[in-house]
Amino acid sequence: MITNYKKSILNLTNSIMKHYKAKVNHSSLPTLDEYLKEDKDNIILLIMDGMGNDYLEKFHPDGFLLKHRKDIITSVFPCTTTAAIRTYESGLSPLEHGNLGWTLYFKETNKFINILPYRDDDTLIKISEDDFDYCKLMSYKSILDYIDENSPDVKKHLIYPNFIVNTHENSMYHGYLDFPHLCEIISTIAHQEGKKFIYIYCDNPDALMHEHGPSSYVVHKYMEMVQDNLEKLIINLKDTSYTLIISADHGQIDVEEYIPIYQDETLMEMLEVRPFIEARCCSFHVKEEYKNKFAKYFNEKYGKYYVLLTKEEFINQGYLGKGKKHPKIDDFIRDFVGIATTYHTFSIKESSFIMKGQHAGLCKEENEVPLIII
After folding, report:
1. How far apart are CA 35 and CA 254, in angstroms?
2. Torsion of CA 304, 283, 258, 77, to 10 degrees
3. Residues 227 and 321 in one domain
4. Containing structural domain, residue 214
5. N or C terminus: which one in the chain shows less Cβ crowding within 10 Å?
6. According to the model, what pLDDT value does residue 256 have?
7. What's the rounded Cα separation, in Å, for the pair 335 and 310?
8. Residue 257 bridge partners (DSSP)
9. Are residues 91 and 157 in the same domain?
10. Mean pLDDT per segment of 10 residues, for the chain of length 374 residues?
11. pTM for the whole thing?
12. Are residues 221 and 319 in the same domain?
C-alpha cells in the first residue's frame, strides 16, 4: 500500500480545520501547520484535479509550481476524485465517508450510480432525489460547516467550474469559465476586507489527461498556461495577506493496455453484479457457489497486472484509512477487491470513450501529489 494516512490530503484538510479551531478527526500536516500559524487574512486552497507530483517532476521540473513545493504527500485510497474530494470537503477518511469511487452499486435501488454527477451509470440520466435520496444516505459534515461553527467571522468562498452546481448554502459561490478567469476571481475576493477561506476546485488537468494522456503535448501546454497565470496571480496578491495552498486529489498514469474483463464470460458468470468502483480498483461481489474458485481463477489470469485482496485484507490493512466505518462500506466492499499494480487497466464495461490516462491503482504516479505553499 502506498497511501500514507499520516502524510496525505486527509491530513492537509485537518490542518485547515485545526487552524479554524474545529475539532479534528485525524492528525494534521506539521509543514502546513507552520505556515498557517501566520494567520493570514486569506487562506486559499486550490485543488488541481489529476496534477500528480510525478507529472510535475517529469515534465515541469523547473516550473513555478515545483519551485514552491514544500513536501510530497499522498492521496487517499482509492486515489480517485470521488474519494479524494469527499475527504477534502469533510476531513474524513474514505472508510468514514464511504464515497469510494466514480461508480458505486446501491442495492437499495439496484442501480450503478456515478457519484459526482449523480446519474445512472447505464442510462446516464440524472437520478431524482424522489427516486433515491443518495445525499441522505451518504451525507457528511463539511469543512465549511466546521468553519461556520468555530470561526463564524470567516467568510467562505467556493470557486468551481461553472458547470458544477453549488450545494453549500453557507458559502458564496463563484463559477469560472477558464483558468485565467479562476485567477481573476481569487484576486478579487482576496482584495476584499476580512478573513476568508477560499476553496477552489479545478477539473483539469485531469479531464485533459483522461482524453489525451498525462504525457501528451495538450496537457503540457495547459500546465504551462496554469503556471504562467499563477505567477501573475502572485503578483496581483502582493498587497494582500494570504497563504496559498496548491495540491491535487490524485495523479494519473498513461494506460499501456486495456484488458476487457467484461468479455471474460467465465469471470462474469462468477459475479452477482459487474465489477465497480473504478477501472483500476474493482469491487467483486462473488456468487456463493464460486467463492472458493474465484481467487484462483483471477490470480492465474490477471495476477500479473492486479493484486487481489479479500474484503478483510483490504479493510484491515488500512487502504481506506482509519475511523468509524461508514455503514455502506460492507455493501460496496463485499468479497474481493482487485487493484492495478501496473499500467494495464481493466475495461469493466463496454464504452465508446477509451481513456488514455487513468488512476485509482497502486502506482506512485497516481498516488503522490505535491504540497505547494506560497
Report:
1. 35
2. -80
3. no
4. 9-99+138-253+364-373
5. N
6. 98
7. 6
8. 344
9. yes
10. 93 98 95 97 99 98 98 98 97 98 92 85 78 77 94 97 80 95 98 98 98 98 99 98 99 98 98 97 98 97 98 98 96 97 96 89 98 99
11. 0.95
12. no
Coil, strand or helix: which one is 145?
Answer: helix
Question: Does residue 111 sit within a domain?
Answer: no
d(CA 246, CA 46): 5
In a domain, 235, yes or no: yes
CA neighbours closer than 13 Å in the CB half-sphere of residue 210: 14
Q: How many domains does the chain have?
A: 2
Domain identity same for 270 and 144: no
Q: Are the beta carbons of 43 and 58 closer than 8 angstroms?
A: no
d(CA 272, CA 119): 22
* Whether residues 335 and 215 fall in one domain: no
Three-state SS for 85?
Answer: helix
User: Is residue 79 one of the residues assigned to a domain?
Assistant: yes
Residue whose C-alpha is closest to residue 44's, from 172, 187, 257: 187
Closest CA relative to residue 373, chosen from 72, 85, 106: 72
Where residue 200 sits, what CATH number does that domain have?
Answer: 3.40.720.10
Cell (9 digits) for 179: 483558468
**Whole-angstrom Cα distance, residue 118 to residue 131?**
12
Picking from 202, 207, 204, 355, the residue whose alpha carbon sits closest to that of residue 280 is: 355
- Residue 284 contacts by C-beta under 8 Å, 6 or more apart in sequence? 271, 275, 294, 298, 335, 336, 337, 338
pLDDT of residue 13: 98
CATH number of the domain encompassing residue 266: 3.30.1360.180
Q: Quote the CA–CA distance of 212 and 80 in Å, as a whole number.
A: 18
In this structure, the answer to whether residues 91 and 162 fall within a common structural domain is yes
Q: Encode burial over 287-304: b for 16+ CB neighbours within 10 A, e otherwise.
A: eeebeeebbeebeeebee
